[in-house]
Design a protein that fits this description.
Elements lengths: L6 E5 L7 H11 L3 E6 L5 H8 L6 E4 L5 H15 L2 E6 L6 H5 L7 H24 L3 E11 L12 H21 L4 E7 L13 H11 L8 H12 L10 E4 L9
Parallel strand pairs: 1-2, 1-4, 2-3, 4-5, 5-6, 6-7
Helix pairs in contact: 1-8, 3-5, 5-6
């Protein structure tokens, strides 16, 4: 088992269809101890029930929109478990109207919101984890991105801009944390039927195009993304940092 005895924090799990859940499954099957962050105390019972199948996993409430909330949650985790070996950042959000209208109609507030939640939260996560000495040597931090960061995809709009900022942040964070032996990478997943994906206009047609044009002629699953995350959490990937790794049946290599 490639992550046996490692403690991994999963940020952003929502339900059994989320990519974060697929990553949790893969890491748990490979021997990891799992911790979770979720938003909203009203969701506690639902999340605790969801993660109960992962052994003695523990869930902590945290609204990542405020740095103090991240610090509080990380202090609790360190008190309970000491240093941890990995973090999955699976956090993104944009206002519905900014995904349904033309990108040019994006409001200043909507632009700031999407980038704050989807990109800056990774920067804050890394900084606060470093300040609290939460991460073990050779720890691995992973975030989730999408092809819309590099290509114009109808309906992805401001989220594409936020994911581009996220990917650029990965490179700078990788350099900053590399001297500590900590790796930072992104996984660019193909389209997966998640709750968040439902907010993207004509999402079903995107999946149809991927199935038709990708070299492997099929869409991917959250578990397949999770398998890649497990590899990146493991010591088998200890020379990989600052990268965006595509898990998309090869769709991103196609010119047309």
């Amino acid at each position: 088992m490639i992550v046996k005895d490692k403690t991994i924090l999963i940020m952003g799990i929502r339900n059994k269809w989320s990519i974060a859940y697929g990553a949790a499954q893969a890491a748990y099957e490979q021997g990891a101890k799992l911790l979770f962050l979720f938003r909203g105390e009203e969701n506690r019972s639902k999340i605790e029930d969801l993660v109960s199948e992962f052994g003695d996993a523990k869930a902590y409430e945290c609204d990542l929109s405020e740095d103090e909330n991240i610090k509080r949650a990380f202090e609790e985790i360190k008190k309970d478990y000491g240093k941890i070996d990995g973090i999955l950042h699976s956090i993104a959000h944009a206002n519905t109207e900014d995904l349904h209208n033309d990108f040019i109609e994006t409001s200043k507030e909507g632009f700031a919101h999407a980038n704050d939640v989807s990109a800056y939260s990774l920067v804050a996560t890394c900084r606060i984890a470093k300040e609290l000495d939460l991460l073990s040597s050779n720890a691995s931090i992973i975030c989730l991105t999408y092809y819309g960061s590099t290509k114009m995809l109808p309906g992805y709009n401001v989220m594409g801009v936020a994911k581009a900022a996220l990917e650029c942040s990965v490179r700078y964070l990788a350099e900053n944390l590399g001297k500590e032996g900590i790796r930072v990478n992104a996984i660019s997943a193909g389209p997966v039927k998640t709750l968040s994906a439902k907010g993207i206009k004509d999402f079903a047609s995107i999946m149809d195009v991927v199935e038709e044009r990708a070299p492997l002629k099929k869409n991917i699953t959250a578990k397949q993304v999770g398998n890649t995350a497990a590899f990146l959490f493991s010591d088998m990937s200890d020379a990989i940092t600052g990268q965006v790794i595509y898990v998309d049946s090869g769709y991103s290599i196609m010119g047309i």
